[in-house]
Specification:
Helices cover 34% and strands 27% of the residues. The chain is α+β, with helices and mostly antiparallel strands and 404 residues long. It has a 6-stranded mixed sheet, with helices on both faces. A 5-stranded antiparallel sheet has the order 8-9-7-11-10. The chain has a 5-stranded antiparallel sheet with strand order 12-18-15-16-14, covered by helices on one side. Mean pLDDT is 75; it is low at 23-27, 115-140, 232-247 and 269-288.
């Protein structure tokens, strides 16, 4: 897959075809559409190109703009490249490594690299720690540092034990399954050797600290600019490619990981006996028991689960306090504890100033089993663990993606 793509608009495609028809043999047309790792996609071929290559874009498609590959089949607009690549690696490291006892993840880059891209909380994680905010930096040599911190979860110890017994192929399969719960854009990263070495070292050797440096080279981007200029001269067409990548030098972005020591994750002997004697998959009693309300957790990723294969039967908006949202959720569950599952969504209204409210969405399951999907926004699932029909399955699915 090319590192750079330009999707030609209908107008530019017509110009391209006219010039090719007048000046070039048909055999050269395909060659000119891909030069120096730049792929130009004609307007009438865009849909097939997306379908065939499973292309994922950061934002909606803009024609006649340069797109740069972040990883695998995931691309972003050239003017957002640095921001997107920082976000991408921060998210994938957080999603996977938090399953195995990740304590902190930090990235560092020079203030000069981020001063023009408006980078901040958009990284998609809660702002646990933020130092040397670039908007407050005066020196261009100063480091910009962002740290996300994760709570310690005993379940991470069992994940480490479980994955230590898997073959390499089984590990990769399971990790890709986790990624798919978030976005297909992360799946290709699981095949990356450096990424695998971090995850496997943590599983096999109880790695406690690791650092990895991503080099973002601009030399090929500069060379690419010459290629586009050459093509423009050949076709006598203005493709509208506007390079705004500000840095003239190669950039290093450093990610460092700190894991909880295995001794802290290990359960006490009494706790281990209780857990081992109580399997996760337990058969629900046939009758209606006293309700035992269960709510999914959140993690440092600013996202959460919502139920699939259900239909919405009600929604309550503008609930001012979380406790009120819980109270309303219990009322809705009690109306039909076997079939109702609640989604609590945090909502922030920035007009005229930030105000936190909550939505309570009431879902009812269908005849087939419901599932979950992880999506953007802070959200929780709430249901009756004793009586909800798909309780065991949903709990296990939440556990698999670290929202149990």
């Amino acid at each position: 897959m090319a590192n750079y793509i330009i999707f030609l608009s209908e107008k530019k495609t017509k110009s391209f075809n006219n010039v090719c028809g007048l000046k070039l043999r048909q055999t050269n047309k395909k060659h000119l559409l891909q030069i120096n790792n730049l792929k130009m996609v004609l307007f009438n071929e865009v849909n097939n190109f997306f379908e065939k290559n499973k292309i994922i874009l950061k934002n909606n498609l803009l024609y006649d703009n340069l797109y740069i590959k972040i990883h695998g089949n995931y691309y972003c607009e050239e003017n957002e490249y640095l921001k997107c690549i920082i976000e991408y690696y921060f998210e994938i490291y957080s999603i996977i490594l938090s399953k195995f006892g990740l304590h902190k993840i930090t990235f560092k880059c020079s203030n000069n690299q981020v001063k023009d891209i408006g980078f901040g909380i958009d990284v998609g994680v809660q702002q646990v720690g933020l130092h040397n905010n670039f908007r407050q930096c005066n020196s261009l040599d100063q480091l910009y540092t962002y740290t996300g911190e994760f709570e310690m979860k005993k379940s991470d110890y069992y994940n480490l034990e479980l994955y230590s017994n898997y073959s390499k192929e089984k590990r990769i399969f399971e990790l890709k399954k986790i990624c798919k719960n978030y976005s297909d854009k992360f799946v290709y990263m699981i095949d990356n050797e450096i990424f695998q070495s971090i995850v496997f070292q943590r599983i096999d050797e109880y790695l406690t600290n690791r650092e990895v440096v991503h080099n973002i080279s601009v030399s090929d981007i500069i060379e690419l600019g010459g290629s586009i200029s050459a093509n423009i001269n050949i076709f006598d067409i203005d493709f509208g490619a506007n390079f705004t990548y500000s840095s003239k030098n190669d950039n290093n972005i450093t990610y460092s990981f700190e894991f909880y020591p295995i001794e802290l994750l290990q359960p006490d002997i009494e706790e281990e006996n209780i857990i081992s004697s109580t399997p996760i998959e337990t058969k629900l009693n046939q009758g209606i028991e006293s309700p035992k309300f269960y709510m999914s957790t959140t993690n440092v990723i600013y996202s959460g689960p919502w139920p699939t294969n259900c239909f919405k039967i009600n929604q309550y908006n503008n609930i001012r306090h979380f406790n009120e949202a819980i109270k309303k959720s219990k009322e809705c569950i009690n109306k039909d504890p076997v079939n109702n599952i609640i989604e609590i969504v945090e909502h922030i209204d920035f007009t005229p100033f930030p105000v936190h409210t909550y939505k309570v969405i009431v879902w009812q399951i269908k005849s087939s089993r419901c599932g979950i999907k992880i999506d953007n926004g802070k959200r929780y699932l709430y249901f009756d663990k004793n009586n909800f029909r798909d309780s065991n399955f949903i709990y296990n699915e939440l556990r698999n993606v670290n929202f149990e």
